[in-house]
Design a protein that fits this description.
Blueprint: E1 5-8, H1 12-24, E2 28-33, H2 41-45, E3 48-51, H3 64-74, E4 78-80, H4 90-99, E5 102-103, H5 108-115, H6 117-126, E6 134-137, H7 140-150, E7 154-158, E8 168-170, H8 176-191, E9 196-200, E10 205-215, E11 219-231, E12 234-240, H9 247-263, E13 267-277, E14 282-289, H10 296-303, H11 307-315, E15 332-339, E16 341-342, E17 348-349, E18 352-353, E19 356-358, E20 365-369, E21 376-377, E22 384-392, H12 395-408, E23 410-412, H13 418-426, H14 428-431, H15 439-442
Parallel strand pairs: 1-2, 1-4, 2-3, 4-5
Antiparallel strand pairs: 6-9, 7-8, 7-9, 10-11, 10-13, 11-12, 12-15, 13-14, 15-22, 16-17, 18-21, 19-23, 20-22
Length: 449
């Protein structure tokens, strides 16, 4: 049964994106907004808006009971969680099932399977997908022994985590115990799960991910993305498709991603993330994100496929409308995440009123945002306020198109990272490609801002 009325349980640009996709399908939308977002652009764009609680996410966007009650109250037959917040929360998927509401995403069992990083590694092994040497650690003694076998440097990671929380790099044995203590505390505080694992640290690595979609019966991939431009494990700039990775390696990654998703009989949109070792020329599984990604527009640009619309259709029972042989890739796309933060002041997040907002237009340019002139950026949420996407026949053309787009963008009233993005695009190391996840730490790009 197709979705008729959709509760959008998110905010910001992803709320706008979901509403737009639903409209294109003729689906009515109800936005679940906190008090801080009641008058923001998504609230005016949706067919209807209801307030689900105070500004703090813990009292609104992170309340499973409130979200489900809101859906029932407005007669919604489906909930789209966007990304972040409850998007990878199996409890929400369970609650939807119990209430007879469609969860626009994977099944609760699939969310649980990939949300546990150790179980995800086991699934990767079973699907014959390469994994980085490492494993679970449950004591300081066990960690020391495993680190010696794996070889330094190593990374300690939180089993239930992401976004760099609970993650510590250790270069020598003398620092292992202290790093593990910090990781334990961070993992417990951030995720309520103190379990840790460690794996070999790849010094010259690139973050490559593969977009997959499934309908519970079949799975296809929609190509790969390079997400290596990161600051403190947070992505800033993404590209599709991955540049300067051997075609055979990219093909192997794509095939591995499909095998992994097929192992789950996966339903919906998901992303399998890999670490490509530029020195060794091999790759290994990192994790799977069982939701739509922030960077999905670059994949949409090169494939012409509406991923969010596809999510809604599949959740409503539709089969994938294409096979792998039908997928074609056109040109190259870049995405710059525009954040309300001050690069000159340690990237401190900014809040306040945007007095002027002017965004670029033109061939190959797409903007995803929830702000306009006069918009208030609240201090309670993620600092991203917009995404600018540039699509062109080639990577150099896409870079040049993005450079022009950034120059055309004007945001006054708060500090942003617009100039920081321009400095990246102007840097020879980036333009030549093959930058690693350490690019912003070891290159001089930061000094150009």
């Amino acid at each position: 049964m197709s979705v008729r009325r959709l509760l959008v349980a998110n905010r910001g640009e992803i709320a706008m994106r979901v509403i737009r996709a639903a409209r294109a399908l003729g689906v009515e939308t109800v936005l679940a907004a906190s008090e801080a977002d009641r008058h923001a652009l998504p609230a005016r764009y949706a067919d209807r808006t209801i307030c689900i609680g105070p500004a703090r996410a813990s009292e609104s966007y992170l309340r499973v009971d409130t979200i489900v009650a809101a859906a029932l109250g407005v007669g919604a037959d489906a909930i789209h969680p966007g990304y972040g917040f409850l998007s990878e929360n199996a409890a929400l998927a369970d609650a939807c099932d119990a209430a007879g509401i469609t969860f626009v995403g994977p099944t609760a069992a699939q969310v649980r399977a990939v949300g546990d990083k150790l179980r995800a590694r086991e699934l990767a092994h079973a699907a014959d997908v390469p994994t980085t040497p490492g494993g679970a650690i449950d004591s300081y003694e066990g960690a020391r022994a495993l680190a010696e076998r794996v070889g330094y440097p190593i990374l300690i990671k939180a089993v239930g985590g992401g976004g760099g929380r609970g993650m510590k790099r250790v270069d020598e044995p003398a620092h292992l115990d202290a790093a593990m203590t910090l990781a334990l505390a961070e993992a417990q505080a951030a995720f309520g799960d103190a379990r840790l694992y460690l794996e070999r640290f790849v010094a010259n690595g690139r973050h490559i991910e593969v977009q997959v979609v499934g309908d519970g019966r079949s799975v296809v991939h929609l190509g790969d993305r390079d997400c290596s431009i990161q600051r403190r494990y947070q992505k800033l700039l993404e590209e599709a498709c991955a540049f300067d990775v051997p075609v055979a390696t990219r093909d192997a990654m794509r095939e591995a991603a499909v095998r992994f998703a097929e192992r789950l009989d996966y339903r919906g949109a998901g992303t399998i993330e890999f670490l490509y070792d530029a020195d060794r020329g091999d790759f290994s599984f990192l994790e799977m994100n069982a939701r739509i990604q922030v960077e999905h527009p670059v994949t949409e640009a090169v494939t012409g496929i509406d991923l969010v619309g596809l999510q809604i259709a599949v959740a409503g029972g539709a089969e994938l409308p294409f096979s792998q042989a039908d997928i074609a890739f056109d040109g190259h796309a870049l995405e710059c995440r525009i954040n309300a933060e001050d690069p000159a002041n340690g990237f401190r997040p900014e809040a306040g009123t945007i007095t002027t907002a002017v965004f670029p237009t033109g061939p190959g340019i797409r903007v995803e945002t929830y702000v306009e002139s006069g918009s208030r950026v609240p201090p309670y949420y993620d600092s991203m306020i917009a995404k600018i996407i540039a699509h062109a026949p080639s990577r150099p053309d896409a870079i040049e198109r993005m450079r022009v787009a950034l120059r055309q963008t004007r945001i006054d009233g708060i500090a942003t990272n617009l100039a920081f993005h321009s400095s990246i695009l102007d840097d020879d190391a980036f333009r030549n490609g093959a930058v690693t996840t350490a690019y912003l730490q070891k290159e001089s790009v930061s000094s150009h801002v």
